[in-house]
Every structure is written in C-alpha cells, then in structure tokens.
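JOB MANIFEST
job_type = single_chain_structure
chain_count = 1
residues = 473
[input]
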Amino acid sequence: MVVGELAYERDLIIIGGGPGGYNAAIRAAQLGQSVTLIEREELGGVCLNIGCIPTKVLTEGAEKLRSTRKAADFGIETNSIEFNLAKLQNYKLNTILQLREGVTALCKANKVELIKGSAFFLSEDRLGVESGDHYEVYRFKQAIIATGSSPKIPKGLKVDHVQIVDSWSITKLSAIPEKLFVLGSDYIALEMAMAFSVFGSAVTILLDGEDFPFDQSINMELMRLMKKNKIKIIKNVSISEAYVEQNTVSIYFGNEKMTGTHLFISLGHSPNIENLGIDRIGIKRTNRDFIEVNQQCRTSIPTIYAIGDVTEGPHLASKAIKQGKTAAEAIAGLSSEVDLRFLPIIAQTTPPIASVGLTEQEAIKHGYEVDIGQFPLSANGFAGLRGEKEGFIKVITDKKTSLFLGMHILGYGAIELITSGILSLEMAARDEDLLFPAYPHPSVNECIAEAFEAIKKQAIHIPPMMKREKSNV
C-alpha cells in the first residue's frame, strides 16, 4: 500500500506498548473505546523488557545475597554462599516473559487490537505503520503517543554494550565486573552501583554534579554508607573520552585518567520522537525538546495526546501510567487531569530510598519556615530485631501552619512506607493528622509517628540529648 490509497479506519490508536501505552489502552477499553495498540518491539516496552524490571531483578538479587550473608545472626548457618550471575540472568528472562505474557493476555481480554510495527504520522489524522516489508496506513479519530525514551550518551563516548554499558545493557552482563565505574547520580546509577558492590565489584561512582538528587540529609547519609561499603565517589566529573583496549576501559576527565574493566553510563534519557513525524504535522515541543502537553496530556493538536518519557518531567513508569489513564479518560469525555506534584521518587538501593514532596532545601526556597522531624531506624525495635538499623525517616512541616510538606526515607521498608506520605500530601494533612492514629506495633511504621513527634520533642525513643541536638540543626 502507498500513501494516498485507502486507509484502515480506527477510533483510538496508541503508539507504544510500555507501561503508559498499555495502561492507556486497557483504561480506554474499560471506558468503551475501540483501541488499537502499536508496538515495534515487545509489549511492555523498555520498562518491562530492558529497563525497570531487569534492573529490579538485579537489585533484588543483591538484597537477597546481602540478607543471606547475615542469616547466621538468626541461627541460619551455611558453610558457604556462592553467587551465580547466570542463574540470576535466567530468572530475569523468565520473569520478563511471564510479565509480558500477562500484559498480552490483559490486552486481549480487554479486546485491544495489537499491531507490531513502527508508526509515524502522515497527517493530523493518518498514520503509516511499517513492519519489515509490510506497510499500511491508518486513519484515526484520536491518538496517544507513548514511545518512551532512550539512554542519553555524552558526545565522545560510545557504548559497546559489553564493557561500556548503558541502562539497557548493564542488566545483560554475563560476568561480574572486577572494577566498575558508574557515571551519573540518578536512581539507576545508585541502584546498579550498590547492587554490583554487593555482587563483588569494586565500584567508583563518578558524580556528574556535586551531589545526589535527594534531600540533603539523605545525601549525607548516602555518602557515609558508600564509604562504609567501600564505594568510592568522585564529584563533578565530565568524561571527555573513554575507550576499550585489551579488556580495559580507559576513562579521561580533565587531566585525570582512570582504568577499570567496565563503565556504566546513567545520565538520563532522551525522548523517542525523532522518527514519528511530529514536526511534519506541527506538534509543539518544549524548549527541552519534549512534546508539550496540557494537564489532560493533550498536545497542540487536540486529537493527539502524549504520555510518559516523551513529555516533561521525571522518567518514571509511575508518571507514564498516571498520564496514560488520564489521557484515556479525557478521550472518553471525563474531566481527569494529571498533577505530578506528589510523584514519589524511589531507588531500590541497599537500603532503599523513597522521597515525596518538598525537600528541606526546596521548602526553604519556597519561603516556608520549616520544622524538621527525623527519627533513626536504629531506635525502632522492629528494625533492630531484623538487623536493619541503617537509615531514618525525615518529615518536613510548615512552622506557621503545621502543614505537611515532605517525607524522605532511607532504610528498610522505605518504598512501602512512602505511601503514607503520598496520601497525606494529597489530602493536605497537618502534623496532627499523622500524630493522631495508632500505628501497628512492632513495625517500622512507628518511625513515621516518632518522626512527627520529634518535631514537637515528644518522640519516646530518642534520648533527650539527641532531641536537643536535632532541634539545633
């Protein structure tokens, strides 16, 4: 078929079958829409196949290895502990396959039409779809762009996916790096640095700035934990060149040269929009080259929406999922909108990190006079009996109104605990709203209550001296 011939008619076409795309497809189908989902690779997108899930299999493997090494404290004795990366890789592939089959089954159960191919806009209401030598044209009433992003690689660096790797290929390594350099400061850089440190790599983090992107208290504790775990950190690094020679990676920055066995680059992602033909039809971009959307994810062309990594904001599956559902609901005529103010940021590190709302620095910049409550996990009985004493919960409130502004957690259970902070921020809670309930005992949940009690110097499990010191911070 050539352009100009009869086009197949469709109601809603979604380009991209990642978390945003398939959630949008299923939500639209729930609302009575006839949906066609086009994916050029595998259903589930980058997140399921080469991104979120593979990296989390590695971090979970590292956590199980770490906890197994501590099992003797609980009377579980083993003569030796060995780590087999090949078995973990096999488990990863099986997990991906099972999840992908689940997504496929859900789409089919919701009568979502699945088409494999590369889609691009021919006009404001027409798409071309290529799959090998096969080419077809579709006319649509509405469309959603959910094509995701690709790892951003600085000029002068070339990823060979063997010794110089990005976030898509680090999870495919067949051997543990002897000496791993990690360039970046985002959550993926942290996750992989800590995981491979547990696996046995000598790890050096090359920060692309001065610090990690979290609240200052978490950043300080991260620096301490890195030092404790013998992970080196070099700040403000901009690599000018890196190349592989005789199984060694040589890295140059400034007047410095370092050598290792592997370099992992994690410096964010660029939107996958170059081959979509969006400029041809006049879809507006932001000054950072993302697709411009409103709160319903509608682009400058009213019948075309965009979600996920092709839009401004954090490159997170949670953002894409929320946007996908919102776009589907807006297309169905509902008054749904996206508000990402309280989007949580997490890292499946050891221990994990979770953050939502304003950091202390941000709250001060916004003009708040802040109250800070911080409670160490080392003072919590349940964390203690589990042997998980590293970290803390930090909460921030407005001194004048007691309005809750942010929660930042480093430690065991952080990612599950942060939901309390998300819901509280969404409901504009004040400190009394989190002080009033009874918390389960024994549990790490009690740290939330004691963090808020610390603001008022009422925390039971913080010694008076510590209370005075924290009040002077």
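[summary]
The longest helix spans residues 85-109.
The CA atoms of residues 194 and 349 lie 6 Å apart.
exit_status = 0
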